[in-house]
Structure formats: structure tokens, C-alpha cells
């Protein structure tokens, strides 16, 4: 398994990251925990040493499950653990954005407890909070770093202007954006910005929540929890399914599955450090490994990219 350094940190991680959002039943249904544990072990055996989660996944449930398993199996030190904070789900019924210093410290303590660890390797702000000044965020981060509770800090879902504001006050090791064949919005600004400033990029939803996994056709009924947005239903799904049928033949020409082609496509971009794959069972992560073996040629990267960009444009035209 290829590894890479995240930004200017000392975190050396695999180019596939094990995503834990799937432990949130609201979006992904019930997970067979024995199968999920086997997936974590299989990932480790295959050289994957990077796990992404968040306190918000299942309101702490995903961190609990991960912490319980890693502690019982004695595997905590084998993984670089990235988690996130932002959604305050503890102070009332409705969750709200919260990056105030007191909340950051509290959220971190709670994540450490659930993860059964004394430190978080990469602590990420899940999204942009306009209400808290960046120097206030930096104050909490300095406290956590000094106490050895967090090693490095990252951000998610931010644009370059927002990263600039934070970078005046603390070092950003990684950006976690959505990036896939069906969502290329960050190519224009965020990816060049990260390359320029030496910020690692760990992209989420590289399979567009499973749609690029190769299992679905125009007639599929995709489970509701993750099927939000125009590509998952009706005419949008028909258009994407047509692109998928062509892409599958290109994948086969290169001895790849559709999922491997889609993952390899994101990993070929020079700004991408590691692709986060959402995992419920061993096949998901083990079936992804081949994606890391080599980049796509420029010709194939553009051919596949253009195919899905044309599909996206068609779906967007339906919407307007
Ligand atoms: N920062 C953020 O705001 C944010 C947002 C979303 C996600 N994330 C992170 O990124 C991770 C990944 O993103 P994601 O969960 O949206 O989705 P994803 O990786 O694009 O899709 C995951 C789904 O794809 C299918 N799949 C996985 N591996 C496969 C393989 N090898 N072959 C075929 N199909 C495969 C599975 O669905 P089926 O088999 O059921 O079809 C799986 O549940 C999350 O777990 C989370 O850690 C972060």
C-alpha cells in the first residue's frame, strides 16, 4: 500500500483511509458489527493505517464503536485516527454549529473518552462556523496541543478564503472536501490552494455515497438514507447509469472494477493525499485496494472525467 505524508506533519498515512460514517444508522442502516470489525482488521493487514470518523456520526456512536473495538483488539497504536467536531449535539434537542473555545475543549474530551485514547492524531473542524473568531479557535487548539491531546489540526468543507482566515492563526495540516467523478467543484480553487500551501487533501465520498461503486443501474432503488441529491433518482439516475455503463467498459479494459476506477481517478490528482472510502464490510475496503497501485494515464483520466462531467451537466440542465 502506498503511503504519503499529510501536509508538513509527521503523519505518514495510507492512500486509502477507512471511513466510519457508515456507523451512523440514520444514513446507512444497521451495520453487521462482526463484519465491520473484520473490515478494520483486513484493512490493517493490507497496509491501511488511516481511519476517519467524527463525533457527529451517530451522535458519538461511531466513535464509541471504533474506540471499543480498537481498545479490545489492542490496535489503537496501529492507526492514525482523524476525527471531527463542529456540531454541538449535547446542548439541547437541535444540533448547532459550535467552535467556541469552551465547546472545542469539551468536544475533544468527549471524543477522547469515546475513542478510548489519550490523543487524537488529526482533529478536524467539520465545517465553517462564521460566528467564532479564528483566534478563539486557535486558542483552544493551542491548549489541546500543549496538553498532548491533539497532534495536528485539519478542516473540512472550507473554501480558500476561510482557510486563509484560519491559517493566520494556526497551521492547517489537511482539508477534507467532497471529491469524485460526480463532484469536481474543488478542482478550480481548493485543490490548487492546497497544492500551493502544502496542505494535504483527504477526499470524502470518492464513490459518491456508493453511486460510483458499480452496483446500481437506472432501475435500482438506492437506500434512502444516502440517496439525497438529483443523481440518485428518476432521470438523474438514468443519465448517471448511462455514464456508468460506458465507464465500466473502460474500467474492464484496465482490469479494474468501477469502484477501483472511480477511486483511482481521484487519487491520480496530484493534490489528493488519501481517499476516504466508506466501509460497512471487508469487501468494501479490500475491493478498493487495487485503486492505489498506479495512477491513470492523462488520456484515461480526462476521458473518464469528461464522461461524468457531461452527465452532471445533463442532470443540472434538468434542474434549471
Ligand atoms: N467531512 C464530511 O463532511 C464528510 C461527508 C461525508 C463523508 N465523510 C467521510 O468520508 C467517508 C466516505 O464517504 P461516503 O461514506 O460518503 O461514501 P463513499 O466512500 O463515496 O461510498 C461508500 C459506499 O460505497 C460503497 N462501496 C464502498 N466500497 C466499495 C467498493 N470497493 N466497491 C463497490 N462499492 C463500494 C458502499 O455502499 P453500498 O455497497 O451499500 O452501495 C459504501 O457504503 C465517510 O465514511 C466519512 O468518514 C466526510
How would you explain this protein's 3D organization?
- By secondary structure, the protein is of the alpha/beta class.
- The chain has a single domain, classed as Alpha-Beta Barrel (TIM Barrel).
- It has helices spanning 25-28, 33-45, 61-73, 101-115, 134-146, 160-167, 190-197, 234-253, 258-268, 282-286, 298-319; strands at 3-5, 12-14, 16-19, 50-52, 80-85, 87-88, 96-97, 120-125, 150-156, 174-176, 200-203, 272-278.
- An 8-stranded parallel β-barrel has the order 3-4-5-8-9-10-11-12, surrounded by 4 helices. A two-stranded antiparallel sheet has the order 1-2.
- β8, α5 (134-146) and β9 form a beta-alpha-beta unit.
- α3 packs across α4 and α8 runs antiparallel to α11.
- The mean pLDDT is 96.
- The structure holds NADP nicotinamide-adenine-dinucleotide phosphate.
Q: Work out the number of β strands.
A: 12
The CATH class is Alpha Beta
Percent of residues in helices comes to: 40-55%
Widest β-sheet, arrangement of strands: 3-4-5-8-9-10-11-12
Shape annotation: globular
Q: Give the N-terminus to C-terminus distance in angstroms.
A: 43 Å
- The number of helical runs is 11
Relative strand content = 15-25%
Provide the CATH topology.
TIM Barrel
The SSE order reads EEEHHEHEEEHEHEHEHEHHEHH
In the CATH hierarchy, what is the superfamily? NADP-dependent oxidoreductase domain
Amino acid at each position: 500500500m502506498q503511503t504519503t505524508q499529510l501536509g508538513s506533519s509527521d503523519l505518514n498515512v495510507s492512500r486509502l483511509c477507512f471511513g466510519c460514517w457508515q456507523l451512523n444508522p440514520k444514513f446507512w442502516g444497521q451495520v453487521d458489527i462482526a463484519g465491520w470489525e473484520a473490515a478494520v482488521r483486513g484493512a490493517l493487514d493490507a497496509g491501511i493505517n488511516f481511519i476517519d470518523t467524527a463525533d457527529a456520526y451517530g451522535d458519538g456512536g461511531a466513535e464509541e464503536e471504533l474506540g471499543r473495538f480498537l481498545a479490545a483488539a489492542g490496535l489503537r497504536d496501529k492507526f492514525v485516527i482523524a476525527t471531527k467536531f463542529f456540531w454541538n449535539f449535547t446542548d439541547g434537542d437541535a444540533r448547532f454549529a459550535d467552535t467556541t473555545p469552551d465547546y472545542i475543549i469539551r468536544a475533544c474530551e468527549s471524543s477522547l473518552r469515546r475513542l478510548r485514547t489519550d490523543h487524537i492524531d488529526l482533529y478536524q473542524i467539520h465545517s465553517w462556523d462564521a460566528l467564532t473568531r479564528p483566534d478563539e479557535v486557535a486558542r483552544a487548539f493551542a491548549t489541546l496541543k500543549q496538553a498532548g491531546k491533539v497532534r495536528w489540526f485539519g478542516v473540512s468543507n472550507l473554501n480558500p478564503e476561510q482557510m486563509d482566515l484560519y491559517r493566520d492563526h494556526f497551521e492547517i495540516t489537511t482539508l477534507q472536501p467532497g471529491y469524485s467523478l460526480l463532484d469536481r467543484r474543488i478542482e478550480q480553487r481548493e485543490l490548487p490552494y492546497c497544492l500551493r500551501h502544502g496542505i494535504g487533501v483527504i477526499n470524502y465520498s470518492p464513490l459518491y455515497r456508493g453511486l460510483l461503486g458499480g452496483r446500481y443501474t437506472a432501475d435500482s432503488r438506492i437506500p434512502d438514507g444516502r440517496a439525497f441529491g438529483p443523481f440518485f433518482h428518476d432521470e438523474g439516475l438514468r443519465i448517471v447509469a448511462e455514464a456508468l455503463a460506458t465507464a465500466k467498459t473502460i474500467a474492464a479494459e484496465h482490469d479494474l472494477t468501477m469502484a477501483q476506477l472511480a477511486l483511482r481517478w481521484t487519487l491520480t490528482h496530484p493534490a489528493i493525499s488519501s481517499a476516504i472510502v466508506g466501509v460497512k464490510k471487508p469487501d468494501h475496503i479490500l475491493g478498493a485496494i487495487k485503486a492505489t497501485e498506479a495512477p491513470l494515464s492523462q488520456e484515461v483520466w480526462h476521458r473518464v472525467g469528461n464522461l461524468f462531467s457531461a452527465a452532471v451537466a445533463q442532470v443540472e440542465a434538468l434542474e434549471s
